[in-house]
Amino acid sequence: MIGGGFQILTCQCWVLQGWNMPSLAAPFWRLYFNLEEGAWIRNQGKRLDFAGDSIYLIPPDVRGGTGLEAPIRHLFLHFLLDSGNTRSPALGGWPRKVESPREIRDLARTLALDLEVNPLNESEACPAAHTLLGWALARSGLAARGEQTEVHPGVARVLSALHSRHYPALSNAEMALIAHMSVNGFIRAFSAARGETPQQWLRHRRIGLACQRLVHSGDSIEQIAESLHFANRFHFSSVFRSVCGTGPATWRRKNKSGMLKVTD
């Protein structure tokens, strides 16, 4: 789901009775909205209790253990920013509560309740999720960052091509050819527009998608590696480890085992 300067990787609402994760780190942004109190995250001796009926934004690579005091209904959006996935100075590398008017909290609550009954498939669009995330980013000053820089038409062509082809492993020269630009000119224009070099941006995008598949699908690591255009499992594992600090099998085990989801 793409639009508004961001790409939503997943939008779901789970009823959790366990959230015992030693490290929540992931290479993508997250929006959380819990309908009840009881969830918390701890990092370097600092604990944040997530208030119920409240919106939180969490930058990439925030590391912290999580837990629950009581079962909760947990709405979560995982997403990537077109302007890059580096930490935001405004958020300070730590979850930030986004002060929200009643109508926005009502939107989040309605979305959570709808998703609890009718979960979305990956390919399905969700206007309410786009509205909620777009508002939260604008409120936090993150939407404006990407909108202030006009995207070069050549860079726009490359971004469109990468998305339509599911982010193949293109070289800078191959992307510059699509952009009808010199390699150096393309790298400068892309970095100015997205806050990362083309290869950094593409690597984060592919690994972010891989993280979603590892947790939210039953696909094997070999299948995920092939679908994201890695040469083989070993190449995929090497790139994954360079971004996430651990291999994909370990990352999947830690992130799936800690979330105890209530099922019918």
Report, as a whole number of angstroms, the end-to-end distance: 28 Å
Mean pLDDT: 85
Which radius of gyration do the C-alpha atoms yield? 18 Å
In CATH, the topology of the largest domain is named: Jelly Rolls
Proportion of residues in β-strands: 15-25%
Provide structural commentary:
With 264 residues, the chain is an alpha+beta fold. The chain has two domains: 2-145 and 257-261, Jelly Rolls (Sandwich), CATH 2.60.120.280; 153-254, Homeodomain-like (Arc Repressor Mutant, subunit A). The chain has helices at residues 102-117, 127-139, 143-147, 153-164, 172-179, 183-194, 198-216, 221-227, 233-244, 248-257, and strands at 2-3, 6-19, 29-34, 39-43, 46-49, 54-58, 65-68, 72-81, 96-98, 259-261. Strands 1, 2, 3, 6, 8, 9 and 10 form a seven-stranded antiparallel sheet that branches. A three-stranded antiparallel sheet has the order 5-4-7, with no helix packed on it. Strand 4 (39-43) and strand 5 form a beta hairpin.
Which short descriptors sum up this protein?
globular; alpha+beta; 264 residues; 2 domains; 43% helix; Jelly Rolls
Summarize the structure.
This protein is an alpha+beta fold.
SSE layout and pairings?
Blueprint: E1 2-3, E2 6-19, E3 29-34, E4 39-43, E5 46-49, E6 54-58, E7 65-68, E8 72-81, E9 96-98, H1 102-117, H2 127-139, H3 143-147, H4 153-164, H5 172-179, H6 183-194, H7 198-216, H8 221-227, H9 233-244, H10 248-257, E10 259-261
Antiparallel strand pairs: 1-2, 2-8, 2-10, 3-6, 3-8, 4-5, 4-7, 6-9
